[in-house]
Design a protein that fits this description.
13 helices, Beta-Lactamase, 4 domains, alpha+beta, about 50% helix, five-stranded antiparallel beta sheet
């Protein structure tokens, strides 16, 4: 097939040769009239085929593409090939979209694509069922107009999606959904809703079981511990050769009681569905109290000396307070400080382990930090530290009275306060545990007040 430009050039060349020949055998006027007449006919043929092309564009179908003649035959032939490829690509695209929709709707989780202003662009059938949406009528509507839960709206606009949000099923108040938002390109978001009802029921059963067993074990352990203590204190009640065994029994009984108390604390925190208290806490006073308790705890670990071997310092911004639950936060802070003491060994009175408790403001966030010069933690353990009963060094934890539940308690308290725990550590050098509280919980006192 000749190139269109070549065909046009050959046509003009042939017409020029004919006109020159007419000029030679006749006259210039005759040649000009012939040349003009042929050009006009040629122009009208182009107008005709342009009209045909425009008419076809109004209802483009493969069967009705004009055949054309001359140059236009090549144009329509190229257009036919383009349209065939376009239809083939459209069929492939539709097939891919159909497969994607089938796959997406087969996923048990609900999927919603949100636009740059949180408008619904697409969703699956499971999302429609779980969130009460209808893609046919709700497309391009802001999702906050349809899901009016205040916690969901705050979560969506916070743009902090590190933790999922639990939400009640829109059509079944007994069902629970877990909402997770994942930012995408072009300011779009992928919202994933997961039915957590069964897992929630299992979790409630587990918490109830732990709480009930702990309650049932606490009373007999208290009785056993009381009898052991009474017998130990009675002169002559325990033979000298058995006193060591009684001491071991008292120690293990006390350890079991501490585990039970921590289990009950953890169960209570996990079962709390409401928001924590939002009272303003005098952080300077709280941290001074925690420092005093830490010194006493350190002395208790080293009863053979008159003073604590740990050097516990406090650097706190006296003008910075926090909103939250005093008892829960005291528990979280105390757990971090006591862990630092447990895992910061001391050799003698002149070689004190350093513990630094800090409270300061950083980038509009309040930060509570505990730094130590202890044994440190290998990086492979850091991600699992907040798991129940996970211990890096089991033997040392038993020696110092650890239960393996402290950091798990801390984790759940921080979730309730929208805070984040960051852990950094160098093996053999020390560790730093930092809690970052959101700006909404920070209270700055006026200087001098």
């Amino acid at each position: 097939m000749l190139d269109i430009r070549l065909k046009a050039g050959l046509l003009v060349a042939a017409l020029s040769i004919i006109c020159v020949f007419l000029w030679l055998i006749s006259s210039a006027m005759t040649a000009l009239l012939v040349f003009t007449s042929i050009l006009i006919l040629y122009l009208f043929s182009h107008i005709f085929w342009l009209h045909k092309l425009l008419f076809w564009f109004k209802k483009p179908t493969l069967k009705e593409i004009p055949e054309g003649s001359g140059i236009w035959e090549d144009v329509f032939d190229a257009l036919l090939k383009y349209e065939r490829n376009n239809n083939l690509n459209q069929i492939k695209l539709n097939s891919a979209l159909e497969r994607f929709n089938l796959t997406a709707n087969a996923v048990p989780d609900g999927l919603v694509i949100l636009g740059n202003v949180n408008q619904i662009e697409w969703c699956t059938a499971n999302a429609e069922n779980q969130l009460g949406l209808n893609l046919d009528t709700d497309k391009n509507l802001p999702i906050v107009n349809l899901i009016r839960d205040s916690h969901f709206i705050a979560y969506l606009y916070s743009e902090v999606y590190t933790e999922p949000l639990k939400l009640k099923h829109c059509r079944n108040s007994d069902a629970t959904l877990e909402i997770q938002v994942i930012p995408l390109a072009s300011k779009q978001k992928l919202l994933i809703s997961r039915d957590m009802t069964q897992l929630e029921k299992v979790d409630v059963m587990r918490r109830d079981f732990i709480a009930n067993v702990s309650h049932e074990l606490r009373t007999p352990l208290t009785v056993v511990g009381g009898f052991l203590e009474t017998l130990t204190d009675m002169d002559g009640a325990v033979p000298d050769n058995l006193k060591n065994y009684f001491g071991l029994m008292q120690e293990q009984t006390g350890r079991m009681r501490r585990i039970i108390e921590d289990l009950l604390t953890l169960s209570t925190i996990e079962s709390s569905t409401g928001n924590p208290n939002n009272n303003e806490i005098d952080m300077h006073g709280l941290l001074k109290s925690i420092q005093k308790d830490a010194i006493n705890f350190s002395q208790g670990l080293h009863q053979n000396v008159k003073r604590a071997k740990h050097h516990i310092r406090l650097e706190a911004d006296a003008n910075l307070n926090l909103r939250g639950s005093l008892e829960e936060l005291r528990s979280a802070f105390t757990n971090l400080v006591s862990n630092a003491i447990r895992y910061t060994p001391t050799s003698d009175a002149n070689n004190s382990g350093e513990i630094l408790i800090s409270w300061y403001l950083q980038d509009d966030q309040a930060v509570f930090s505990v730094r130590d010069t202890g044994i440190g933690i290998e990086e492979k353990h850091i991600d699992r530290l907040t798991e129940r009963f996970y211990r890096v060094d089991r033997s040392r934890s038993r020696e110092t009275g650890g239960t393996g539940l402290g950091l798990s308690i801390v984790k759940h308290i921080l979730i309730r306060h929208q805070a984040k725990l960051e852990i950094t550590s160098i093996l053999g050098t020390g560790s730093a545990f930092s809690i970052k509280f959101p700006k909404a919980r920070v209270v700055k006192k006026q200087v001098g007040v």
